Amino acid sequence: MPELPTPPELPRTYLTGELTAPVLARMIGAERLVPVRKGAFVVVDPKDPRWHRKRVLALGRCVAATRLLSRDHVFSHTSAALLHGCALWDVDPRVHLFQSGNPSPGHTRNLVRHVGAIGESERTIVNGLTVTTLERTILDCARTLHPRDALVVVDSAMGILVKPDRTDRTGTDKRTAELRARLLRLLDEPGMRRGRRQGRVVIALADPYAESPGESALRWIALARGLPPPVCQSAVRTDAATYYTDMRWRFTLTRPNGTQRIVTIHAEFDGRIEYRGTGPEASRIVTDEKVREDRIRATRAEVVRAVWEDLAHTDRMFARLIDALPISFVHSLRARPELLRP
Predict the structure, then answer these.
(1) How does pLDDT run across 231-283, given as a tens digit for each residue?
(2) What is the per-residue DSSP string for 64-88?
(3) Which of 219, 252, 288, 298 is 20 to 30 A from residue 133's alpha carbon, by CA?
């Protein structure tokens, strides 16, 4: 399994009075300095890919907020998730925080102040910034984000807390069950009323074995439309090797004559496809993946692969996931309304 995410390094920020006008103009002109709020700028590398720059700017907005806000505050929701190093479906350009006192206005274009008090047990320090704990961040994101986005964050945060080990599923499952039960108890507290129904379902179905936002989003497509929770990081033993697939469903189906058959579906998300490039290395990757898929199929299993583009066409993607299942079984599926949103 890949290494667990860690809190990202915070970018350097400057306030207006910290740079002379010529230096400020020169750095902005060279695209090395970007304004992130009134009177604050963050240092960026113009050569970085767009997705990385978005993260740097979002982190810079958090640093700038800390430097400019006078009242006690705690970063929360997607800002807390970002600062903890959790996976995100997309980077939220707004800073989310709880702030003491009665600041006004409540929201600005890039700053969202949430209502509520954050106790000492629900706050922690990450890279010098005061942030909601991972557990509180899970509770806030599970209730308030789009269910796909919520599942991405909660999967990742649970992974950080549980530290899943696919060679020790018993231990991992025990830690996961304990964390899930604790989160569901906290969700019943009075301050958690908003979005509680969605939050309960997201937390119940989150899986610390998810290794990327794409995997979480693919699983959301399946869960929202009624498939049962799959086994994530499922071991497939072949004569040549043991492979781990992103998720696996196994159904025992009864034929009209009363006999039974087993349908196994492995779903895999490939987020590397756009980075493969060309040349011998790219060719080797394609060949290895083909061999791997053929060996998994040889176990009498179906394999469904998805790339980023597939995740934008949710109904089409779901149709591929259920293609091997009889129509009578498909008709018996019941969508989860707490998760099913465009």
Answers:
(1) 999 999 998 899 999 999 999 998 889 899 999 999 999 986 544 455 556 56
(2) HHHHH--S-EEE-HHHHHHHHT---
(3) 219
- Looking at residue 257, the DSSP 8-state letter turns out to be T
Give the residue carrying structure tokens 């025992």: 252
Q: In this predicted model, what pLDDT tens digit does every residue of 73-94 receive, in sequence order?
A: 999 999 999 999 999 999 999 9
Q: What is the DSSP string of 11-60?
A: PPEEEGGGS-HHHHHHHHHTT-EEEEETTEEEE--TTS-HHHHHHHHHHH
Residues sharing a CB contact under 8 Å with residue 318, sequence separation 6 or more, in sequence order:
221, 222, 225
CA distances, 282 to each of 123, 271, 309 (Å): 45, 14, 20
Q: Verify cis geometry, omega within 30 degrees of 0, for the bond prior to 105.
A: yes
Task: Tell me the pLDDT band of 34, cut-offs 50, 70 and 90.
Answer: very high
CA 132/CA 75 separation, integer angstroms: 6
Q: How many Cα neighbours within 13 Å face the side chain of 143?
A: 20
Q: If you search the block for the tokens 């987020």, which residue do you land on?
A: 271
- Taking the domains of the chain in order of start, what are their residue ranges? 13-210, 215-332
- Over 51-66, what HEC string results? HHHHHHHHHHHHHHHH
Residues 203 and 218: their CA atoms lie apart, in Å, by 17
Task: Give the torsion sign (CA, 212, 218, 220, 223).
Answer: negative
Q: Which amino acid is at 283?
A: S
DSSP codes of every residue in 261-276: EEEEEEEEE-TTGGG-
Instruction: Supply the pTM of this predicted model.
Output: 0.93
Amino acid code (one letter) for 130? T
